[in-house]
Amino acid sequence: MKVSWRVRVFWMFLCLFASGSQSVDDFKKAFPIVEPDPGHTKLRITKEGLEAIQKITTPIAAVAVIGPYRSGKSFLLNQLLSLSCSEVLESDVLAGFGVGHMRDTKTKGIWVWGTPVEMVIDGVNISVFYLDTEGFESVGKSSVYDDRIFALATVLSSVLIYNLPEMIREADISRLSFAVELAEEFYGRSGRDIAFEPAKLLWLIQRDFLQGKSVQEMVDEALRRVPNHDGDKNIDQVNQIRDSLAIMGDNSTAFSLPQPHLQRTKLCDMKDGELDPAYITKREELKELVTSIIRPKIVHGKPLSGKEFVSFLEQILEALNKGEIPSTGSLVEVFNKGILERCLKLYSERMAALNLPLSEQSLQKNNEGFREETMKVFDEEHFGRHHAKRSVEKLDEELEKVYKNFVLANEYQSSKLCEELYTKCEDKMDQLQVLKLPSMAKFNAGFLQCNQSFERECVGPSKSSYEHRMAKMMWKSKSQFIKEYNHRLFNWLVAFSLVMVVVGRFVIKFIMIEIGAWILFIFLETYTRMFWSAESLYYNPAWHFIVAGWESLVYSPILDLDRWAFPVGVVMAMLVLYWRCYGRWKHGSGWLLPLYNSHIGRPRSD
How far, rounded to the nearest angstrom, does the alpha carbon of residue 549 sit from its chain's CA centroid? Predict the structure, then answer.
């Protein structure tokens, strides 16, 4: 049993090791990473090929070859990678990119060699992938599809090899319009603001058999402006491309390769010894040239790892498929998306820091200041020189949406605050309506306090509507208070006069208090009988004098008798009780005022 158990464990480890080795070997071939859709107009991701890239953790560089179909792009990549394109291989030779010899195109979409070439550039380990692209101008495809292939290769690559057979034609220069547009939009920036560094453009002339000028001289001559005395728009457009390519002169170079062999359909079956020695020499020089200009792919100021490269590919492909025609503007929007979100967040944070509610003028002023600050940040960081207008418009639309939300929030907070103040004042007015001791002075003080607090604290767009409601409520409360004030005061004075009669006769026994109380009582009762109603009394000057005295007694800034009536009454009662029970017994009657004389205790005369 022990032997069989050990055997099983051994075979298990062996299988795991074999599967691991197989998974590594599986990447030593070409994979499609982008393929055409069924309509052959747009591109879509192929997950199989991306696995080879995603596993890379070091910075990535990509060498892409573009050019017309049947121009030898796949064969060139196999030569650069020292791979074979033959279907019959020896045991130590790897099959590279597929090479066709038929009239239709062999490569569909974009393919990648699954095993990167490891290099050390400036002391950093770099993984270099080689990309093969579908050729231009093949039968059965739209020019829009070619544009998407070219645009994607231009953006993804660190080195872009423009593979051309024999000569540079006017159409070949026109094809670079997208690369030029990208250069004008992105490549003029420096430092951390770089969206992605431009690919090194390598003009490669295949099957170069012409004598005379060097390839570099031929490229320079092809990029010179063409006289356009007749004002042909097409010539003007190509001349603009020439001017832009001339500006990119430091970022491009030219190279030529002679024909490797006359029997071109047999090239895949030939070894280096059978090829033209001049071709072998130039091929090795080309390898050295490509190696010397390779740099890691830089996006947003940092090199991309495998997963980041795949994410970048998906992002760019989505932008290129967005419209019917791929445009630099769509790429600009992609690169500005993150900046736009950061600017929108900055504006939202600034607005959220405001202490709502605010007046409409104050909110608008803050909005203008924060919007100006946000647009300034966007202007400093955004990508694109000519096609950033759409991003600016989108940012402006988003800022307007956020501002409208804050306007609604300000209206809600203003309404909430003003409603709270209105309710508070309404409750205050209701309390003043039921004062135990009616006082016009106290009502007016509360009325003024409510008005001032509302005017000071109620802010925002709801203030005007609540001011109208407030004025209406206050006027109604004041009218009601005035209407009941005289009537309640009349009743209080009648009761007060009767109480003072009792106090003057039986408690204090001060005849002047009793007389004054009787006069007040008689005046109140007889006047209303003589003039039919109490309302007529309220216009009498004597009544005004009585009211002024009452107001002085009941309410003042020092003493609010409505609040302190009970404590004051208790204190006075205790003082009177003290005087009656203790003060007179101890000190005798020393009053100088006319008091009632008591006959109790006098000796009777016979």
Answer: 67
Contact 161, 290 (CB under 8 A): yes
Report whether pLDDT(149) > 60: yes
Please, are residues 163 and 73 in contact by the beta-carbon 8 Å criterion? Answer: yes
Alpha-carbon distance 168 to 223, whole Å?
Answer: 10
Report residue 32 as tokens.
Answer: 């499609």
Residue 378 and residue 371: Cα distance in Å, rounded? 10
CB of 124 within 8 A of CB of 59? Answer: yes
Both tokens assigned to 547: 């009211």
- CA nearest neighbour of 196 among 296, 329, 57: 296
Which residue bears the tokens 């030569």? Answer: 79
Tell me the pLDDT of the chain averaged across its residues.
75
| Alpha helix ranges (H) inside 39-92 | 47-54, 73-81
How much is the pLDDT for 18? 43
Q: What is the pLDDT of residue 27?
A: 67
Position 399 pLDDT exceeds 70: yes
Distance CA(601)–CA(304), nearest Å, equals 120
C-alpha count within 13 angstroms, C-beta hemisphere, residue 524:
21
User: Which residue do the tokens 């002075």 mark?
Assistant: 441
Q: Measured between alpha carbons, how far apart are the two ends of the chain, in Å?
A: 150
pLDDT band at 245 (very low <50, low <70, confident <90, very high): low
Rounded CA gap, 444 and 221, in Å? Answer: 96
pTM check: above 0.85: no
Say how far apart CA 62 and CA 437 lie, in whole Å: 93
Residue 104 pLDDT grade (very low, low, confident, very high; cuts 50, 70, 90): very low
Average pLDDT over residues 109-118: 88
Tokens of 355: 């202490």
The more confidently predicted of residues 604 and 220 is 220
For residue 42, what are the contacts with CB-CB under 8 A and spacing of at least 6? 36, 145, 148, 321
Measured CA to CA, the distance from residue 78 to residue 98 in angstroms comes to 9
Alpha carbon distance 158, 207 (integer Å): 25
Residue with tokens 């420096």: 190
The pair of structure tokens assigned to 274 is: 């059978």
